[in-house]
Amino acid sequence: MRDEKPSLSATLANNLARQITEGVLRTGDKLPSIREYAEANGCSKNTVISAFDMLTANGLIEPRRGAGFYVASVAKPQQHDEDAPTLDRAMDSVWLMREQLQSKPDFLNLGEGFPPVAWLEETRLDHFHQRVVRTGVASLFRYGSRFGYLPLRQHLQQKLAGYEIEAAPQQIVLTHGANQAMDMVVRYFVRAGDTVLVDDPGYYALFGKLKLSGANIVGVPRGVDGPDIAALEERLKAHRPRLFFTQSVGHNPTATDISAAKAHRILQLAEAHDLIVVENDALADLKPRSATRISALDQLRRTIYIGSFSKSVSAALRVGFLACDANLASDLADVKMLTHVSSSEYCERTLDAIVSDGHFLRHTNRLQERLKRATATGVEALLRLDATIFKVSDQSLYLWARLPGRDDSIAFAKEMLDKHVILAPGTIFSAHANNVSPWFRFNVAYLGDPKFEKALSRAR
């Protein structure tokens, strides 16, 4: 027996219902009149009336006497975009990463992890394409070296020397961003059940990688001048971990820098407890070269230094690197080869062309000046709101602050999403994400936007 086709009125009703549920027609929108709809679809008015009756019965539209039919307030658009957030979804590290990978022109993204595009676009990536193609077209069709493009590693040798870190090219491995560098370290050192120490609060994406590996994540509280040394020593004695992931300069999310005294003490503890310190310096180009770095004090004996250009050139290039002892670098290059074969030599050649150009130094200097101004503006904006700032920085992409009367950052972040403001709640940055946190990470580049204060006023 053949299935009966739906009636024309049912087909019209289904089409309208789909437009409503997909958000094409939104709450409060007025539908075309019955006559207009009939003419547009080449059917009778009675057919349209039957379709509207079905939609009314299902609560999708409502008649208003003398005004026509409107999309009912109970009909909420359903987002089918695979990256679209929902308010009832747990705000975990994956949620924040998804938010940062989307472009939402009508949202104010105070939780953004990167500088504004306008700050970076002056590098003009398009200018370097022809140079890259002319200097090595054959290599663009093959896998590159497991260590990465040698001329770029030689430039990185000079860059690290500016931070007083001595690293030969064979100690440097190019990666698909800083995140791949961390992933390689985790794959090499960590087995299920191993304890790994991390900054708390700290870099949320790292926590996800460690969870995937089955590691036991133990947080070391972060103070205004670096990790809590007493807590670090206690955790080293209790857990005997092999790795401690930390960020010395422009710490994400607290905007703190480590003191020289704490950096020295961490290295003393690392020596005593056979610990390797993994130093993530992804924001290096946004901070002064003179800032204290653990790797500069240690010279890569017990440290692995991780760097990136996502914050200063382009996240789309996905070029990062790690520097460490030469034997360990070779092993980690093998891990890279086994898991990813190689990094992108095209991207590496492009970055090499950029950093070897004299314009790049001027670009980073301007970037830091912009950041100083934005940081000052951001501090003023937060103080106007009676916010408590964890550490007032002169120059940092982020500020770590809490707002008065907002003790649950997750709940308030969900509330602000309704007002088209994206926040980065502090709970996401905790090694123990079940903890309630009153803190937020704010991107200073957007704190001066009056939309935030207006949204807060509406929330109050």
Automatic annotation (TrEMBL):
Domain of life of the native organism: Bacteria
Protein name: GntR family regulatory protein
Family classification: In the C-terminal section; belongs to the class-I pyridoxal-phosphate-dependent aminotransferase family.
Cleavable signal peptide: none
Example GO molecular function: DNA-binding transcription factor activity
InterPro entries: Aminotransferase_I/II_large, HTH_trans_reg/aminotransferase, PyrdxlP-dep_Trfase, PyrdxlP-dep_Trfase_major, PyrdxlP-dep_Trfase_small, Tscrpt_reg_HTH_GntR, WH-like_DNA-bd_sf, WH_DNA-bd_sf
PROSITE patterns on file: HTH_GNTR (PS50949)
